Amino acid sequence: MKIYCNHHLLMRYSAYVYVPMGLPATDRAKLLGHSVDTNLRHYTFARTDDYIDILDFKAKKKDLNKRKKG
User: pLDDT at residue 1 above 60?
Assistant: First the structure.
């Protein structure tokens, strides 16, 4: 398996290491240093579970913001 550039290395890590480990999309994005959207578009073969993880993450973040304001 040849690695031609940094993009290929990150893509392989995301798709063949982090996904099989069961890491959520939000954690994979943090580890690779990208936004979740960039990670899903360019570094990972997106799965339905990823979108569920993102929705859960956004809901928790929204809930925390409401608590801070309230």
Answer: no
Residue 56 CB-half CA count within 13 A: 10
Q: Does residue 44 contact residue 25 with C-beta atoms inside 8 Å?
A: yes
Per-residue pLDDT at 8 exceeds 60: yes
Cβ contacts of residue 5 below 8 Å, gap of 6+?
none
Using the 8-state DSSP alphabet, how is residue 5 labeled? S
Count CA atoms closer than 13 A to 36's CA, side-chain side.
14
Tell me which DSSP letter residue 22 carries: T
| Residue 12 CB partners (closer than 8 Å, separation 6+) | 1, 3
Tokens representing 14 are 């995301």
